[in-house]
Amino acid sequence: MFKKILIANRGEIACRVIKTARKMGIQTVAVYSDADAQALHVEMADEKVHIGPPPANQSYIVIDKIMQAIRSSGAQAVHPGYGFLSENSKFAEALAAEGVAFIGPPVGAIEAMGDKITSKKIAQEAGVSTVPGYMGLIEDADEAVKISGQIGYPVMIKASAGGGGKGMRIAWNDQEAREGFQSSKNEAANSFGDDRIFIEKFVTQPRHIEIQVLCDAHGNGIYLAERECSIQRRNQKVIEEAPSPFLDEETRRAMGEQSVALAKAVGYTSAGTVEFIVDGDRNFYFLEMNTRLQVEHPVTELITGVDLVEQMIRIANGEALSITQEEVKINGWAMESRLYAEDPYRNFLPSIGRLTRYRPPVEGPTEGGGIVRNDTGVFEGGEISMFYDPMIAKLCTWGPTRADAIEEMRLALDMFEVEGIGHNLPFCAAVMDHDRFTSGNITTAFIEEEYPNGFDGVSLSDDALHNVVAAVAAMERVAEIRRTQISGTLGNHERQVGDDWVVTLQGQSITVSVKADKAGSTITFPDGTQHRVTSDWVPGQPLAKLRIDGKPLVLKVNKVSMGFRIRLRGADLKVLVQTPRQHELWQLMPEKLPPDTSRLLLCPMPGLIVSINVEVGDEVQEGQALATVEAMKMENILRAEKKGVVKSVNATPGASLAVDDVILEFE
Prior knowledge:
Layout: E1 4-7, H1 11-23, E2 27-33, H2 40-44, E3 47-52, H3 63-73, E4 77-79, H4 89-98, E5 101-102, H5 107-114, H6 116-125, E6 133-134, H7 141-151, E7 155-163, E8 166-171, H8 174-192, E9 197-201, E10 207-215, E11 221-233, E12 236-242, H9 249-265, E13 270-278, E14 284-290, H10 297-304, H11 308-316, E15 333-340, E16 342-343, E17 349-350, E18 353-354, E19 357-359, E20 364-365, E21 371-376, E22 383-384, E23 391-399, H12 402-415, E24 417-419, H13 425-432, H14 435-438, H15 446-450, H16 462-487, E25 489-490, E26 493-494, E27 500-505, E28 508-517, E29 520-524, E30 530-535, E31 543-548, E32 551-560, E33 563-568, E34 571-578, H17 580-586, E35 600-602, E36 607-612, E37 619-620, E38 625-631, E39 634-639, E40 644-649, E41 656-657, E42 662-666
Parallel strand pairs: 1-2, 1-4, 2-3, 4-5
Antiparallel strand pairs: 6-9, 7-8, 7-9, 10-11, 10-13, 11-12, 12-15, 13-14, 15-23, 16-17, 18-22, 19-24, 20-21, 21-23, 25-26, 27-28, 27-34, 28-29, 29-30, 30-31, 31-32, 32-33, 33-34, 35-42, 36-38, 36-41, 37-40, 38-39, 40-42
Helix pairs in contact: 4-5, 5-6, 7-8, 12-13
């Protein structure tokens, strides 16, 4: 077995590989850029090697720098993780020339299946049904528009060397095809060092289901069931699960056997994933094969008990698979929520900054009989950089059934504390409570269809609302008693804490009565309904773990004037808890209006100005592209929301802007 491996990656996947290597008694070497000098993967590894400046094209994807790190460390093998150099055949060739094992497939398999254009041609020649598209290289935007028209809109513009949603655009007309081609080409060059683009028909009602395969160099190949990855935004997976709620055993077997046959046809070894789109009649169509470990591999591990990273290392060491297809069993259900540094209230735009608070839920067995797992590459006090993918963590849960796994995920998301940056925890929580998701009736258009105007939080159901009212009333009474104890007595008059409170939230004001004893509080509503609240929460704690009528409730809590900011299940609420007299006077207070920014184009995220498309005096139309901002390897085109005339241009290409910096002003 290898004594030392180098991980040619960063972030959570580097940490993930280190954990398995440590379990196997293998030493690890981390590589890092200037931006990652204090990163978690660097701290976890046995050795570390600096490889250059923050941009990936000057550090993590420079083959010569990785090779120098291998030589200086004496590593015998390299695990590439995903992204970066994981599907780069030149990197695999360089390792082979150096006599270093690549913990991944052979060069020929990477070249055959890692390139999306080549893999589609091979699949077509093998008689596999594929999505209609143009497999040749596309030289410029004019040709992209022409080809898109021939295929028929909508089309998907994709980077040949792409992955993780990078270099992908959907175009519904000629203008979007032209703009999407250039943005995809730029992102592909920046992320992969390969700007080749192809175009295929975009299927509007697909499910994205993929098969995990493992193949060794001794002719053995197995599939480890499937993963449903249909909850996607901008072609980037957000929530995955295993198995799929849609497949039956017959379809699963057919997809699995076809995937293994395809892998064997190209001499594939190691872990790989064959991706399909599946229609409503369970017809499946080959999309591509990812010749690497997938981001969402933990859900497969949770339902099969197979450590995929360990299997990759053993296969690279020349060992035969110790698992047969008959031994692969599906046990229970697993969910994965990808925690991204993206602000859902700003249309999921990237967010960077310092993690002032980062407290994941406790990993391992849960009170409800499930399992929580959190794969992460960050820590409290660390920085989220603009140079890399916005993923912070992958929160996974397991339960005996799909409903159990979802409930475990709900509680785990409620327990997850992240402060200092925008993040998508509220959105993931909202999906877990969405009727369409819980029923399993999902497609890759789920987010687009259910949140067409973006995400602006959720409104709590009446039952959830009453639970929050009961909880905060009990919490406010605890806080008020504490305040009276701190202030003591004034003269001969001791402050009295009353029983009646008015709780205002979500546009409602509800009067409740609170009766407390040593074990908890009983909250009585106007209609006579009562709720029993128990908790050990004390003022100042940002997480309140309560029980309402014996059932768990977890609230994220911040103190505000006359109440709390409460976050729960995708809802972000300002909750006022007042005495009846305070509430009476509060109703007389005037409402403070926000400033008018309708004449300004504000930078929606920290990022780099790539281009300004207008000049002073230009008359712009609704939907017209005004500027392009790049952050976390993604280009974002900012468009006019209405007609107007440009009064001033406050930014120039190449400038780095913060959130809400003024880019343009209109007359």
